[in-house]
Design a protein that fits this description.
Layout (H helix, E strand, L loop, with lengths): L2 E6 L39 E5 L10 H18 L7 H12 L2 E5 L18 H17 L9 E5 L8 E4 L7 E2 L12 H14 L7 H5 L2 H13 L4 E5 L2 H12 L4 E6 L4 H8 L5 E5 L4 H11 L5 E7 L11 H11 L7 E6 L13 H6 L5 E5 L9 E5 L1 H10 L1 H4 L6 H14 L2 H23 L11 E5 L3 H13 L2 E2 L1 E3 L10 E5 L6 H14 L2
Parallel strand pairs: 1-2, 6-15, 8-9, 8-10, 10-11, 11-12
Antiparallel strand pairs: 1-3, 4-5, 7-13, 12-13, 14-17, 16-17
Helix pairs in contact: 1-2, 4-14, 6-14, 7-8, 9-10, 15-17
Length: 527
């Protein structure tokens, strides 16, 4: 069956689509049981014409106004008596529809054979057996991710409570304690409005990579705003922070580079380094500045360039790199490397999540990065990633970075939303959100300690409960879920064996009542 769609008017508002979606008159299918034209609803095959019955401005069109259109389509359908999979009736109705101001779209006319196509791929049953065996091993070990929860509705904050979430198949409202949207900006009215306005102006997608024809004004506005926010010369945006990290590392690490990386760095850093061919690489113990100092001394005189790469905030634990201490060690060794020691920091979980002004780990430690990488998809509440630094650096990354050159950017709408989110953070409202977030984080951490749970205290809203056992972690996650709390259990290989935990993430849209309820559920389970 073909899928032809007719839109009445020029404005499509799916929330206002009338119930008469499909008409079936003769060979024209009508999925609605009601007979809008006073004719029987003929079942069976035929050409499908879909109506989105909306007038200009989004108002529903009265049924009576549809009758001439229905009659025209019906008469052509019956006159041609179309065989299954033919579409002449729809073609012949098009001129009349167009004359009535009706746009006629066909998404499937290029298919000569309308019958379901048989898969043309070769069998890979032997590979499937191997993959299924590996999946079974994950399930037996309790380290599989399992099925994904599907959010079907969000209830806004009110009555002293933060937002609540509904999941597919469940009539329960959940508190979300596993969201990266630290400031709750994904639901901020100004952020949503900015995305809607830009999307209507520029369209839903970029249509090309940046250097061809995929750069929109909102991309440039966002890049300028990020550079200003971070007091840098320039910035460059990517489809994700993961892409930003990998693209940056593969561009800056060459065969004359020594790479030094914290042992608990994020997967994107690990894989980014794996994709390069440095002269040497070393992994230093977590946050061990003395070991970093020693590694730089050993690399001195053997390579032209050194790259120190670290997370700002370590997302599984909420602790963070002491950038001031790293800067001191780097300054000590920088003269021994002809092309400098370059400090690269991925502060995706830090920027917008802590520090009185939301500048993340640089602000919290009074240190700095030569190359700062961030995300637009966590505290800023939108999507995408970015790198900020010198004008020379960002220009070089545009010319050399594979994830920038060969991958589409975020949409124009997302860029506008992200720029608005940065502006919110960089305002009095942002300061108030960050202050409330810090207060709720402290309330939660204090409650955990008072209840006898092990945690890693600190100012960042990632607050782990260290369970240190895979089975018990799963049991606690299940108990929280049964009591309306969404939290994430982390087991090996996501975290090292013995570091199994539940990662809680406090958000600015949580209230004191929310925090106290989660603490009460944890207390009922016991430590």
């Amino acid at each position: 069956m073909i899928d032809e769609e007719v839109t009445v008017g020029h404005s499509v508002n799916h929330a206002e689509v009338a119930k008469h979606d499909l008409l079936n008159i003769g060979g024209v299918r009508h999925a609605n049981e009601d007979d809008v034209a006073g004719r029987p609803n003929v079942a069976g095959g035929g050409d499908e014409i879909r109506f989105e019955v909306v007038g200009l401005g989004g108002s529903p069109i009265p049924n009576g106004d549809l009758v001439p259109v229905i009659d025209e389509i019906g008469s052509h359908a019956m006159a041609h008596d179309p065989e299954p999979y033919e579409s002449e009736s729809c073609h012949d109705a098009a001129p009349y529809l167009s004359s009535q101001g009706v746009s006629f779209r066909n998404s499937n006319l290029s298919r000569l054979d309308r019958r379901p196509a048989k898969p043309s791929v070769m069998s890979h049953d032997r590979l499937d057996k191997i993959l299924e065996s590996e999946l079974s091993d994950l399930r037996e070990a309790g380290t599989d991710k399992g099925s994904e929860l599907v959010i079907t509705d969000v209830m806004g904050a009110g009555g002293g409570l933060g937002p609540r979430y509904r999941l597919a198949g469940l009539d329960v409202e959940f508190i979300k304690m596993n969201s990266n949207s630290y400031l709750g900006l994904s639901r901020h009215p100004a952020v949503i409005s900015a995305e809607e306005f830009a999307t209507r102006r520029f369209g839903a997608g970029p249509g090309a990579v940046r250097f061809i024809s995929g750069t929109y004004q909102t991309h440039l506005d966002l890049e300028r705003r990020l550079a200003e926010f971070h007091s840098r010369e320039a910035s460059i945006i990517y489809s994700s922070a993961y892409a930003a990290v990998v693209s940056t590392l593969t561009s800056l690490i060459n065969s004359e580079t020594a790479v030094l990386s914290d042992e608990l760095n994020h997967n994107c850093i690990i894989n980014g380094v794996r994709m390069t061919r440095p002269a040497a690489r070393a992994v230093y113990p977590h946050l061990d500045i003395g070991s970093l100092d020693k590694a730089l001394a050993e690399a001195s005189g053997t390579v032209s360039r050194a790259v120190v790469i670290t997370d700002g905030v370590f997302s599984m634990r909420g602790d963070f790199a002491d950038l001031a201490a790293i800067n001191e060690v780097v300054a000590k060794h920088d003269g021994s490397f002809p092309q400098n020691v370059v400090v690269i920091v991925d502060d995706s979980h830090g920027v917008g999540a802590y520090g009185a002004a939301g500048r993340g780990t640089e602000e919290a430690t009074d240190g700095s990065a030569d190359v700062l990488i961030g995300t637009l998809g966590k505290a800023f509440g939108v999507n995408g990633g970015y790198v900020t630094g010198s004008e020379v650096l960002t220009t070089y990354l545009r010319e050399k970075g594979p994830m920038y050159i060969y991958s589409n950017p975020i949409t124009a709408g997302e860029a506008a939303a992200a720029e608005m989110a940065v502006s919110v953070v960089d305002s009095l409202e942002g300061v108030e959100l960050l202050s409330h977030l810090a207060e709720m984080t402290n309330r939660f951490e204090t409650g955990l300690v008072d209840a006898g749970f092990e945690t890693i205290p600190g100012p960042h809203p990632v607050t782990p409960v260290m369970v240190r056992d895979t089975e018990r972690t799963a049991s606690l996650v299940d108990y929280l879920f049964a009591n309306g709390v969404l939290a994430t259990g982390l087991n090996f290989p996501v975290v090292p064996k013995g570091d199994e935990e539940i990662r809680f993430q406090v958000n600015a849209d949580h209230t004191a009542t929310d925090i106290d309820y989660v603490l009460s559920v944890l207390g009922e389970f016991g430590n």
